[in-house]
Design goal:
The chain is mainly alpha-helical. The chain contains eight helices and no strands. α2 runs antiparallel to α8. It is globular and about 45 Å long. The chain starts with 8 loop residues before the first helix and ends in an 11-residue tail after the last helix.
Length: 152
């Protein structure tokens, strides 16, 4: 059976696409770009989104992220020395929110993040987690192909 071509979300739902771009841009404000990329990379791993993973690991490299740290993101708990306490708290929160259906966001995970970020920063971190999860779902639903970054 021939493979069905999926819709182009940006062209088919331009208002929703532009709103998501605006949400993404607003979510990043005030956060360290390296932290934003780590969050996006971890969520993309968990969601099995090769398109977004490829895009955000490339963005992280361009921003100066090391190959060592990029390789350690999926196993950050076993490689804590590669990441700051703040980054570890954000990664743990990213996992909990991304996998929210598996048991919610545990109080200890939230408390750890709240101890590392002030309220405004924590709200921004949550917004970044929400946006990347949405982007992952759009990319997966529309069968985006890794290595075809359309932002260029």
């Amino acid at each position: 059976m021939p493979e069905q071509t999926r819709l182009d979300f940006a062209k088919t739902a331009p208002k929703a696409f532009r709103a998501l771009i605006g949400f993404d841009a607003a979510a990043r404000q005030g956060l360290d770009p390296a932290l934003v990329e780590l969050i996006q990379i971890r969520a993309s791993h968990l969601n099995h989104c090769a398109y977004c993973l490829h895009m955000h690991t490339n963005d992280a490299r361009k921003a100066g992220e090391s190959e060592d740290r990029l390789h350690m993101v999926p196993v950050w708990r076993e490689a804590r020395h590669f990441f700051t306490e703040r980054e570890q708290a954000a990664l743990a929160l990213t996992e909990a929110v991304t996998l929210v259906a598996d048991g919610g966001v545990p109080d200890d995970v939230y408390a750890r993040a709240a101890a590392e970020f002030d309220e405004e920063e924590l709200a921004q971190v949550l917004a970044v987690i929400c946006t990347i999860n949405t982007w992952n779902r759009v990319a997966l639903a529309t069968a985006k192909v890794a290595g075809t970054d359309e932002r260029r």
